Amino acid sequence: MLKTILHSEQIFYVGADDKTLDLFESQYPVPDGVSYNAYVIRDEKTALLDTVDPRATDQWLEQVTEVLDGTAPDYLVISHMEPDHAGSIRAVTERYPDMTLVGSAKALGMLPQFLGDMPGNPTRTVKEGETLELGSHTLHFVMAPMVHWPEVMVCYESGEKVLFSADAFGKFGALDTDQPWTDEARRYYLNIVGKYGAPVQTLLKKAAKLDIRTICPLHGPVLTGDLAPYLEKYQTWSSYAPEEKGVLVAYASIHGNTAQAAALLAEQLKALGETVVLLDLSRCDMAEAVAQAFRFDRTVLAAASYDGGVFLPMEEFLLHLQYKAFQKRTIALVENGSWAPCAAKKMRTLLDTMKDLTVLEQTVTIRSAVKPGDESALLALADAVHQA
Predict the structure, then answer these.
(1) Where are the alpha helices (DSSP H) in 254-351?
(2) What value does the mean pLDDT take over residues 295-315?
């Protein structure tokens, strides 16, 4: 256990790493696991800040017991009711029946939906701007609806200038995983919170008025030091602006011919000096493909025609982008078809449901296998993408 996270030795981390989970939310691969973060503030009054997934209840309770050192907590602050954070509420309320449950009206309203009935503990509903005095520490409650559930709130502790940020600023990966923050934070944000850019922008405006020195998210590492890079990434991601100039070439190929076309196009783009990521949608992590599409300012979609439409891995990818409010990008299309090429039409139909996209009129159509004329067309398309 990380004994303390801050200099005062009054704020404690009591979370847990989970390296046995294969799919987060039953859809996102987590090869490096995930952390369920929770915290304790010990002062004249003691507050638990969130719980953990039921998979880690026993470990969490053991750590809480150690930190409390024979005392009972006065409060449990519930920032988010998703089960990976609220999944141990029943266990802790049974152990501490006099502890007050603190949360937004929507959070407390969701409790019986998950638990079947309300615990017998006293409750306190808090609103925007209200505070909870613990002694030398004061929690200020900031509502954050739809970041990414409607009941979410974050807490700012003004004494040590700590933002307990709920799911904001979280990432995939266990805490003992040695990896950069950005890649897994991007994949986490854009797939889980990405649809809700406007609410995140609202929260960032509220956070800008606070003197924040430490960010304590519900997943991933505690963030300290220069916080500007993390805030800048969230500003970019939540405004749907491209993170950097570059091209994602995403392809869905049945027999390998469309894959060959995509690879040729990717090499031509690299020769023009572009940063390029090439992804096989039939085999890659779809969440990573979504993250890369949001990362770059341009995307090339290459797909085979299939049953009068587009090969299904490409359709699935476009539906994921649609769900996550993909926008403000330039798109180029490559289709393949042996007798009735129709993939580009289907891709265009799905892209038309998304806003503020520029789809290049120049489309490459391949008949079965790549031939010299197709190579010339791909080179011309690479030039068009490079100039876009």
Answers:
(1) 257-271, 286-295, 312-323, 343-351
(2) 98
